[in-house]
Amino acid sequence: xxxAEFETVLAGARNGDEVAFARLWRDxxxxxxxxxxxxxDTADEVAxxxxxxxxxxxxxxxxxxxxxxxxVFTTARRRAVDAARRRGREARFGRQHAExxxxxxxxxxxxxxxxxTQEAVALVRRLPPLQAExxxxxxxxxxxxxxxxxxxGRTPGAVRxxxxxxxxALADLVAPAGVTLAEAATxxx
Amino acid sequence: xxxxxxxxxxxxxxAEPSERELDGIGPALAELRARVAQASPxxxxxxxxxxxxxxxxxxxxxxVAAGLVGVGTVLLVSTHLPSGAQLPAGLDGPAQPHPxxxxxxxxxRGPDANGPAKHGLCTAWTxxxxxxxxxxxxxxxxxxxxxxxxxxxxKVAAFCADVLKPRASGGPGNxxxxxxxxxxxxxxxxxxxxxxxxxxxxxxxxxxxxxxxTGTTTPTTPxPTTxPTTxPTTPxxxxTTTPTTPxxxxTTTPxxxTGTPVPxxxxxxxxxxxxxx
Lengths: 189, 277
Prior knowledge:
The complex is a heterodimer. Chain A is mainly α. Chain A is built from nine helices and no strands. Chain A has helices at residues 6-14, 18-36, 43-56, 65-91, 117-124, 129-139, 145-152, 156-174, 181-188. The longest helix of chain A is centred in the middle third of the chain and has 27 residues, at 65-91. Chain A starts with 5 loop residues before the first helix and ends with a helix. By secondary structure, chain B is an all-alpha fold. Chain B has a domain at 22-208. In chain B, 39% of the residues lie in helices and 0% in strands. Chain B has helices at residues 7-13, 26-39, 41-47, 56-69, 99-105, 118-130, 141-150, 156-169, 175-181, 188-196, 199-203. The longest helix of chain B has 14 residues, at 26-39. Chain B is globular, with a radius of gyration of 22 Å.
């Protein structure tokens, strides 16, 4: 988050100040890449497309930093859906419908103590698509429930439910035996 | 999120950015530059403080600088200044306390509408007028200058008449091309791709996605003066007064699509792809 200076920085970027723009970029590109990793290995490509679209639309954006983040992630999601559609066309798969979020089931054994960011995202990818998206938009993008609902085109209630279930499922993933790490620690004592 | 077993996952998901995640700003900066050149060629040079083409070095040093001074400072790797020697003050090292803040808070002067920026300003103004969004100009110093030079918002059209006519007879214009014709950005896109040296850059050598009908070139637009700065691909949820251009991108469909993504397996956990922070 940029915080109190956000408005100034955004105004600078809008006027073509490249340092100001770089600040916006550096603030959001990492979470953007993590979120877009849900779509597979096209994250870099889709993030680059997202930023081009964002730059072109800079003049049309109005709002505070939360709205800005929601806007960027909304744009990213559209680009990701496009990319998934392209990919599907290229592969000529027979399936008619799919989310852009490609979930994985074959994650290696989870060593949660020293998780890398990529491994954590891979864990999230094992959740159902909506839950995975909600978790990343809440945790990684830091968006409030209402903004996540806007990005996904869902109701806030649905987002809350998905977040709750997603986090619970994630907790089960890192403690497959149904025993949380805390409980395991307690048991060892 | 209260489940303590989630803590390591949450921590990993929100870890500090890795170097790889801070690499690749080049195409976006090039787009920003092209867009600014379009709107006001005269203002572009004054405002152009830093040029970071995705070189890892730039990102790394930029990261160091940002870490030290708390602002997004970017190493200048100028491909525009002939000698590369005219580094703007404050960008030659992390010692300067607040270079970005200085540039961001300095009262914007904007381009001189009576100078060489006139053409660009008029073009942008006309484009905005075409799309019925003159109301958005309040925040723009550049447009304020234009209105002042013209002697009033209602006189801008007349003020601009002389510079816009030649453009109109030149056929459907490519805004980027016009900007480069000034010699400001000659050969820049190729330079970007070459400097980048990554397949990312090669896929978008000029910073423009090939499948996206954006306003960068608008051959089918009735008014040849329509500038790309008028937000061709406006996300639907944006509170905007700018309608999309006629060449609307067909990609604004909501979440569910008819496409079929290929299950990629566990691409993100392949050892070869792991880039530690």
